[in-house]
Amino acid sequence: MSETRSGALPLTGGCNCGAVRFEVRAPFETAGYCHCVRCQRRSGCASSPGGMVSAAQFAVVAGADVVATWRPEGGKPKSFCARCGGHLFSGDPHGGAEETIGVRLGALDGDPGIRPQWHQWVASAPAWEPLPDDGLPRFDGPRPR
Questions:
Q1: Which of 43, 105, 139, 141 could form a disulfide with 49 if both were Cys (CB 3.0 to 4.6 A apart)?
Q2: What CA–CA distance (Å, rounded) separates 103 from 110?
Q3: HEC letters along the chain
Q4: Integer Cα distance of 5 and 112 in angstroms
Q5: Is the model's pLDDT at 97 over the cut of 80?
Q6: Cis ω on the peptide bond leading into residue 10 (within 30° of 0)?
Q7: 118: nearest Cα among 28, 32, 46, 29
Q8: How far apart are CA 84 and CA 90, in angstroms?
Q9: Where are the transmembrane segments (predicted)?
Q10: Shortest CA distance to 71 belongs to which of 97, 119, 38, 24?
Q11: CB of 107 within 8 A of CB of 14?
Q12: CB–CB of 59/18 below 8 Å?
């Protein structure tokens, strides 16, 4: 697995078992923490950090046949490795330039070149994990676009 230098493009990443590999071919537009119940249950954590990029700048380069996708009612598709369960991205990578992909920062090989800039769905944050006093903007629901 190659190590990405501080935001050098393309950014590479993949799942825990290595079956799925992807590339992010442009800098992330923004990044933040999602505290929604879906992210909590998918990750087993209080929040999920993700970076946003246009679908046109994202590609699964290996293992597309083992990418499984859950399509929740009223939400973006959530994709993961069907072999190891590693969370990879949300959104439809074939959705065109207007589609935004939310890449799980923990699935990247190295430094994403961006730091989380906001918290969204803080109304759903669990009581057992207080939100950090990090000065980032907080949104009770989805972050305004």
A1: 105
A2: 13
A3: CCCCCCCCCCEEEECCCCCCEEEECCCCCEEEEECCHHHHHHHCCCCEEEEEEEHHHEEEEECHHHEEEECCCCCCCEEEECCCCCEEEECCCCCCCCCEEEEEHHHECCCCCCCCCCEECHHHCCCCCCCCCCCCCEECCCCCC
A4: 8
A5: no
A6: yes
A7: 32
A8: 17
A9: none
A10: 38
A11: yes
A12: no
Q: Residue 15 is which amino acid?
A: C
Show the tokens assigned to 80.
């993961």
* Res 55 pLDDT > 60: yes
Lookup: tokens for 116: 């989380």
**Nearest CA-CA partner of 43 in 100, 102, 109:** 102
Residue 1 has pLDDT above 50, yes or no: no
Backbone angles phi, psi at 65, to 5 degrees: -70, -15
What is the identity of the amino acid at 55?
Answer: A
Q: What percent of the chain has pLDDT over 70?
A: 95
Cα–Cα distance measured from residue 129 to residue 52, given in angstroms and rounded to the nearest whole number: 24
